[in-house]
Amino acid sequence: MHWADVAAKSLSHRGDTHVISTGITPSGEFHIGHLREILTGDMLARAAKDAGLDVDFIFIVDSADPLRKVYSFLGPEFEQFIGHQLGAIPAPKEGDNNPDWQRFNEEGWTYADHFLTPFMDALAEIGVRPRIVDNLRSYQDGKFAQQAKLACDSADDIREIIERVSSRELASDWFPWSPLDSKGSLDGVKVTGYEYPLVYWIDSHGVEGSSDITKGQGKLPWRIDWPAKWSWIGVTCEAFGKDHGAAGGSYATGREISTLLGHEPPQPLTYEWISLRGKGAMSSSSGNTIGPIEALRLVPPQILRLLIANSKPNKAIDFDTGMGLVTLADEFERLCTRDFDSEMSEEDISRRKLVQIEDAKAALRLSMVEPGEIAKATSVSFRHLALLAQTKSSDDAIWQSLVSSGAINEPTKQLQDRLERMRYWISSEHFPEEMRINILSTPNEQALSSLDDEQKAVLKGLTAALHNCQWDSESIGSAIPQAAKDLEFSPRSAYRAAYAALMGLEKGPRLAPILAEMDKVQIMNLLDSCCQLV
RNA sequence: GGGCCUGUAGCUCAGUCAGGUAGAGCGUCGGACUUUUAAUCCGAUGGUCGCGGGUUCGAACCCCGUCAGGCCCGCCA
User: What ipTM goes with this model?
Assistant: First the structure.
């Protein structure tokens, strides 16, 4: 059974109504690692709905978290906001990346909005539409009031849980509430007393004050904030990264604190990280990232979904924006054309085979942008489209080629969309070299020397034929095989010779349309030089 | 130091929970397509299941140990 269906089935044993949650801190540019968080949750939510459960899928935006430091993508003026909540400070402004006070004051446009909005747009395109829970607003609206009171009343119990489970010692003045100081920062504030609903404090400037825990004048520390959310929202299942999932991590303390707060801990689903192939783990601060938005400009959303659907959550994904993406995309096409039901009804099918077919079927179902959407193959592989996009200058020429070869009747919107992404991909640094069409500028002697006498002879005839040939795709296309036929050889020898001379390869893509797009004089010079060498 | 995850074909991974003849895709190789050849179709190739013990009629799977990689026990998807 597919991992999402397994998890959904396990959820069904707990009850019929579920709140499946995910959460991310909008501290910087989102990357596809974050996409795994939310897609894991989305797929689980869909699987649970398919299993007949009543599901509310939510995305908690941790806008109450403080700015930790002045990241490399921020202007120096952000120094003043360290420790301030992401949903309460201005966004970086285009240009100098310093705080955009104007938009902040006029529209209330915050740091959190700035990073969240493009991510939400990408999510919509990928078919993920969770209910958004803004954490800062929830605090301000008093949603945390009851849990915050319980936590502060049980400060000693919570301290005991965290110290025991994470085997870490808490400071003597530790308190389960982080008040905002006189300047709006959560850093360097010492709690001096508590009398519901007020927490008394003294800040790093020596200022004293009080914080009302029912009105969001501060927040719960992360390890309590999380279970408190589970409690007031009623979360029954949450997908989270392996960092939270390890023994002693925040889930381990969270589940005990959750019980203390009177809420049954949610069913966990821990997932592994995504790294960029050859570049190690994704990290916003090192700039080693690829955003969901950029990934979407390369491939259609279904393929991004397949990336997640195809890997069990506990498997690390090494995201490859080069050949790996071609393989993934072609696999998606293949899945679309398969008839799973007839495959499964085959006689004498092994249990192992059956599992494989089931998983493939489920992965495809979960890869659809719209739940329940029927997969339709485009009948044009990524590989083939990459080739066409490189050899034809206009889109119309590509559709013409595909129609005349019988691959399609007309360019669908899906195909047009795919071609657009393909053209962007080809122009990007991610496009793999081995897919790129390269016509040599000087002869490749090694490739030429591998030709046999027959092929060498054909090369000369071919060169002569092309000299006299009209320079269009059709004429070139007939001149190449004809050169071999004139010498009573198989057309294959002409192609073999042409690839060796023009590209230094044994085989390659359709030559005629490529040559037709190129300068005849340049090609003929290359071929003439080759003829002199053989 | 304590704990979690991962290790299966050249590559990406199923299969481990409920032990029963080692699987898929990609790649590679071969064939077919005689004006196309990175396409498509057909076929083949490929693994001491990290290593060592144990339990069992039987172990990739269960148990013990061990090696390697990643991660957690401040913050992090």
Answer: 0.85
